Amino acid sequence: MKLIANNIVKRFGNHLVLKKINFEIETGMALAIVGHNGSGKTTLIKILANLIAPSRGSVEYRLSGGTRVPRERIFEHIGLVGPYLQLYQELSAQENLDFFARMRGLKNHRERIRDLMQIMGLQGREHDAVKTYSSGMQQRLKYVSALLHQPEVLLVDEPSSNLDEQGVETVYQLLKEQKQRGILIIATNDKQDLFLADHIIQVKPV
Amino acid sequence: MREAWLIFVKDIRQEFKTRYAVNAILLFAIVTLSAVSFAIGTFSAGLEILAALFWIILFFSSMSGLSHIFIREEEAQTADTLKLVARPLHIYLGKFLFNLLLLFVLEIILIPLFMGLMNFAVANLWLFILIVGIGSFGLAGGGTIVAAIISKASTKGALFTVLAFPILLPVLITGISATKTVTQAAAIAEVQGELQALFAYGVVIITAGILLFDYVWNE
Amino acid sequence: MITKIAKFLLWLAFALVLVGAFFWAPLKEGLGPYTRVLYFHVPVAWMSVVFFLIAAYYSVMYLRKKEIIYDAYAKISNEMGILFAILATVTGSIWAKMIWHSFWNWDPRETSIFILLLIYGAYFSLRAALEQEDRRARLAAVYSLLAFVTVPFFIFIVPRIYFSLHPDPVINAQGKVNMEARQRIVFFSSLITQTIFFLWVFSIRLKQARVKYRLRELNESKLFEE
């Protein structure tokens, strides 16, 4: 899998946020996007995740054969963790995860859910409503839902937010595995997170 | 279509736990109905006027409930989560089914209540139900796409009614006309034109919704 | 040079229409001096529909090309449209009051223009509620098109429902124009002149929009060079 950013420009009205972002990244690589708050990190992540369209330029996902993934199917290959992505609060964790798994057409998702919940230390709480989870637990649950389908590309906005030391360690382990198996992209202000990446992009306000 | 069904079921589950939209829509209908009944009091309103009143109550009650399905996703910040697991087409269909069900629930309660409280009699009950049923497809179809549009705006409540009213007006006009006829005539032939118009509208608005939803949903 | 001549001819035509309307064409029996509203009310109502169609066209163009200039065009079309819809409603109502002694009656024509007003009003309410430029452009375009598909339904169902007070017998009994020669001349001249005139004003506004966005583009390319 290859992820190519082609001259990405993003403008919100008269305000230019991203000015010609270019990079190419493949399986086995990790990219860190750094910058102050408001510099455009989140905008870039959202563009890479196909949640927002760039004003100019494009994002390309290319499978190993070279074929390009059509825009409307990009979501099948990615997982995203971010503060702006919430889970359904009134439903239980199990109901949330079942829903995501079924939507993605996963087989044997029950096992996979159980394993991931265990790794993230959430076993036993599958049937509790998500709104009863603490913010740390919700963050961990977000990782579970993002990794359910073993995405080739994992995007994480603020990997360590809301997590205690134990949580951060578990997450780092998961992220390292993701990097070996696929592509990892993180957006962060935390210098601690940077060891994960081999490439760094700095986004500055225009 | 499996995915649309999954979304539909998920929405029902959520609704079951919060009962927000159902409460809003039913309470509005009951309050309005009571107000109308009280205002008319002991006088008897002509059947034609009652036909119009029924549709007005139906319309404005749906205005208080049909937008919930999208506003909830935006406010809870689950819209992007949904975007990452589903295609726009399935999202539109799933939400449309939810709104359709919501309308049917409203109608099951409103029709007997209205007929009982207002002494509203029709020559052919099944025909009346058919008219309302087909009209509901149009209301749900148009309501769903407009709900998607306003969910991305900053001032949501009143905007929904302002935008939905012109779009749904054909259903209102045709529905009222057909209902007026049904108070007197029992034959389906009498309202054939209106039924066809309602059906055609349903098809057109749902198709337009499916085609345009991509543009609303994808940023 | 040619544009100068064209502009002069346009002004001349307009002046002639005004003179013709107020002094030259005879008054219709029964309507008296109110006949004159005809020369101004019909073209204005017609323009409101024309701009509605133009707006739908630019909405489609925006959704296809995603270039902000098309959204600017669509917005300007809708602005012209609502202006004319208001003018049509007001002139129509005044006429209605004079002839039928009632400002508003919900006859099919009145109902249709009212619905058009509602659609335009909704369009601008939507625009006002959206702050982000591309979101606003996109959703406004979608709404324009949604309104556009419902219009055929209005054309068919509204006349079936209500009776008509509208002076069809005077103008359109069997689709024929029941006006005397002079009236006909003034009427059609007015229609054509006003159409040309307002489309010309429209094109100026479009030019204005083009300049504004071109300027922005240039400023932005400067930013890239830094």
Structure description:
The complex is a heterotrimer of chains A (206), B (219) and C (226). Chain A is α/β, with parallel strands linked by helices and 206 residues long. Chain A has a single domain, classed as Rossmann fold. Chain A has helices spanning 41-48, 93-103, 109-119, 135-147, 165-181; strands spanning 2-12, 15-26, 30-34, 56-62, 78-81, 153-157, 183-188, 199-202. In chain A, strands 5-6-7-3-8 form a 5-stranded parallel sheet, with helices on both faces. Chain A has a 3-stranded antiparallel sheet with strand order 2-1-4, covered by helices on one side. The longest helix of chain A is centred in the last third of the chain and has 17 residues, at 165-181. Chain A is globular, with a radius of gyration of 17 Å. The mean pLDDT of chain A is 90. Chain B has 219 residues and is mainly α. Chain B has one domain (2-217). In chain B, 82% of the residues lie in helices and 0% in strands. Chain B is built from 9 helices and no strands. In chain B, helix 1 crosses helix 6, helix 2 (20-40) packs parallel to helix 6 and helix 3 runs antiparallel to helix 8. Chain B is globular and about 55 Å long. With 226 residues, chain C is an all-alpha fold. Chain C has one domain. Chain C is built from 7 helices and no strands. Chain C has helices at 2-24, 37-65, 68-100, 108-128, 133-161, 168-171, 181-225. In chain C, helix 1 (2-24) packs antiparallel against helix 7, helix 2 runs parallel beside helix 7 and helix 3 packs antiparallel against helix 7. The radius of gyration of chain C is 21 Å and the shape is flat. Chains B and C meet through helix 7, helix 8 and helix 9 of B and helix 4 and helix 5 of C.
